[in-house]
Amino acid sequence: MAPTAVPVSGTQLNSPAPKGKEALANGSNTAQLDASKIIYKFTTNLRAVPDEATANTSDETICTDHMITAVWRASTGWEAPELKPYGPLSIMPTASVLNYATECFEGMKAYRGDDGKLRLFRPNLNCERLNVSASRISLPTFDAAEMEKLIVTLLSVDGPRWLPKDRAGGFLYIRPILIGTQARIGVHAPKEALFYIMAGFIPRLDSYPGGMRLHTSPDDLVRAWVGGYGYAKIGANYGPSMIAKQGPHMQGFHEILWLYGDKGECTEAGASNFFVVWKRKDGKTELITAPLDDKLILSGVTRRSCLEFVRQKLIGDIEVTERKFTIGELFEAQAEGRILESFATGTGFFICPISQIRHRGQDIMIPIDPELQAGEITHKIKTVLGDILYGRANHSWGVVIPEKE
Ligand SMILES: *Cc1c(COP(=O)(O)O)cnc(C)c1O
User: Fold this and answer.
1) Is 80 exceeded by the pLDDT of residue 245?
2) Ligand 1 test: best mutation among 109, 303, 397, most atoms within 8 Å of CB?
């Protein structure tokens, strides 16, 4: 049995894809992804590192000097990974990914801490999630721990120059991606795939002045549906969603609040998870977000970290609830003065306060403390998680990348 056929069940990161080599390619003798076999082909042409402002205004994502690639074939398994100069790929026009969107990816960041160290945030969860996505789109799975080692390898090589120690508070964006490369027309699981990892600059998104403003999705568009693949980070979820942000309704708004079903269940804000803090009818303060069980939403690492953190009651007595909730409930709560805060979470936006939601011409306005530029609870969560990202607090969620002195 080829690795593509390995069942990886569950979208909840609490019950992730199987771990370790033993979980893969049952009964198969094809080669596993093995980070220790990496072949180094260093660039002879180190490029100039742009400052943050230049990097963020470029029309093209500026990537670091190197990337890591690994080829998979159904017959032989994973070849030795290579670290090589960042540059164009060569794939045939008939490649599976170009015709049938056999693609999945991850998004994470490496953060330059106040202490000068470079850290990843819970990278194991991203690596496990890529397996969940890969199995949904008929691409091979692999040992998540090996993938994590490859990410660390790329960053130990390019991190010191591209995000030097004097850029504390900065980050590099890391994009691991898996594509079906078999050069054959026909709708079937690809027998060849390419995994690669690149690192580069993306703009900071966590603070819109005055908060993020959401517009609900148009009535005739859905992002994801039950039985679909909203829980998987596969390209097919994102290309078709972009159209929702086009048109005059988006004037003055930043992202779409994706509603689902006749009742208008609140699912995600753009490509981020969506949270509301409100007073329940019984007077209790509650942090609420959409559930994972119907596989509509992506199980964000940031989402999970917020939930785990608030459940530990570290910022006061707040109930944490994962359940379906509708736009109608938000309007009702607004009319009763029960909405306290709202925010979006994800690696791109980190934790981004939301100040307004417009639905069918009516607005929900959410207060934002002008000093904190967030609600009080949002601000606390953001501070605690930010302290872990940037090494101000020592926590097992922050994984230090070894670098040469
Ligand atoms: C990536 C993503 C998120 C956020 O996930 P993080 O792991 O927190 O970065 C949320 N929703 C969608 C649709 C996403 O693609």
Assistant:
1) yes
2) 303
pTM of the predicted model over 0.90: yes
> pLDDT tens digits, residue range 326-360?
999 999 999 999 999 999 999 998 999 999 999 99
Q: Which CATH number fits domain 11-204: 3.20.20.70, 3.30.470.10, 3.20.20.140, 3.40.50.150?
A: 3.30.470.10
Residue nearest atom 10 in ligand 1 by C-alpha distance: 272
Q: Is 76 helix (H, G, I), strand (E, B) or coil?
A: coil
Asked if the 212-389 domain carries CATH number 3.20.10.10, the reply is yes
| CA nearest ligand 1 atom 13, residue | 271
Alpha helix (H) residue ranges in 241-326: 301-311
Contact 271 CB / ligand 1 (< 6 Å): yes
Q: How far is the CA of 350 from the centre of ligand 1 (A)?
A: 10
Whose tokens are 């670290």? That residue is 83
